[in-house]
Amino acid sequence: MLKPGLQAEKDYQLITKDLWDYLMETYPGNEVKRPVLILPDGTKRVEVYLKQIKIVPVNNALLRAIDHAKIHNLKTFVFQIFSQKTVKELRSEIGEICASSYHKVLFEPPSSLYTPDPNYNEESIRFWKLDPTNTIEQLFEFFKEETNRARSYEYRIPFKGDYINKDEERLVENAEIADDDYVVLEARDSGKGWNLTGEGAPAIDKCEYCNKYDFLPVQCACKKVAYCTEECRFRDKRFHQMRCDKAGEEEEEEEKAMTYTPDSRMGQVGLQNLGNTCFMNSGLQCMLNSKELCEYLLSNYYLKEINESNPLGSKGKLVKKFASLMKASWYGKTPVLSPWAFKSALSTQATMFSGYSQHDSQEFLAYLIDIMHEDLNRVRNKPYTEGIESDGQPDAEIACKSWENHLKRNQSVIVDLFHGQYKSTITCPTCHKVSITFDPFNVLSVPIPSKKVKNIDFYFIWANNKKTPVKMSIDFKPEGHNVIDLKKSVSEMLKVPVESFDFVFATHTTAEYITDAEKESTNEVRKKKKMKNLFAFQKPDY
Length: 542
Known about the structure:
Low-confidence stretches: 247-256
Number of helices: 16
Mean pLDDT: 83
Largest sheet: 5 strands, mixed
Structural class: alpha+beta
Helix content: 25-40%
């Protein structure tokens, strides 16, 4: 497992297989392989950081041990997989581990009383994603309560989370598993049913009527019982109705437009890290809290302006996902949002943001602003325009003409809020002609000045012993700063000639004069001072 935060070309180097084989033959060592993803445009991308999944193994023996208070916590394992593999391939790879001797580590029993089934394989395992609002400790307490409540060791525990295997053809990248999410690996003993139940999960369970273990496609609205056939349901109906809390009812799902309520978060939400998506989350938070853009999207006015015919945009897909995220952050009630839908749309539109590699937040923001502008561009047919140069015209006049030129091809709320233009001046070194243009921008880079200043301190000892030594502290820039420069600073501060004193490293028994002062680096003197005491002694003649 690689250390997080490594940078290409600095901390590691990607090489070809031929070069790697040569290095392994010359310098034998451990092999670090990484898959190569071929993007739709034909370019290749190496997935240096594989998708990490926190696995929590659960089987009947473990639940029995929890029931009898033989264990007091759940074990977790970290599994790595290529993000472009499917959920089915994930199940196959972990199934091979479960079928090997390693299953004893995954499902190690607390005692011989709880022996796990040795015949686990990919057909007898499935995955559940724990609700991000719950912790692993809360999951253990939940299992403890449910197992204590059960009447037999054939547990049927309603799981609080999502059933991952409901769509096994989707990529692991799109399975909505963040780095801090826990995935429960449920293993089923042969000849018995699953221990966990939930929406979308096929129930290989005991039919409520005929008691046979099979897939149970027929489920009551109360979701407490299921049957292998409609006939079994019909035969059990009269008995079950006496204890069914939804007898005769049919659940209906209605999609309601999200609107403001007193419990709305009003933008005060966090965004879950989906795996190296800090760059995306920080940019999204800036956009989600842009007041004017927020008012525009929440009013649904953007729906009238979506430009689906613009080849430079996403046909409105990305702006719709962003608008949905905006509504959830302002009108929703959840304090933490998982922007999976937006991430999926972004990865589809811009393959450079697919996977879980680290990216630059400014690069993401620039792309998002540009795509949203094209999705909302009111100009359907862009006319051809030519650049405008000053030719001696006043800056204000040429700036207005350049902006009008820009608006001929670009008109949207994004232009109104995020576009500007900067002045560019170029002088020909031969004829000295000056060319001035005004170019549009949507993100302006502002450099942060680096303040690389170091400090050195020492005592200045006067030739006249009656005068009190002066403790001095001087700041300097390491590059090109020599001891002679340091002496000049002391000279200015104490009003003494530069040649009237010398720097000395002194101890109780030795004294080391700093000679060749003009070439000695102040920074090197500072480093030596960590081991010795530095003084500036004034010469007796002064």
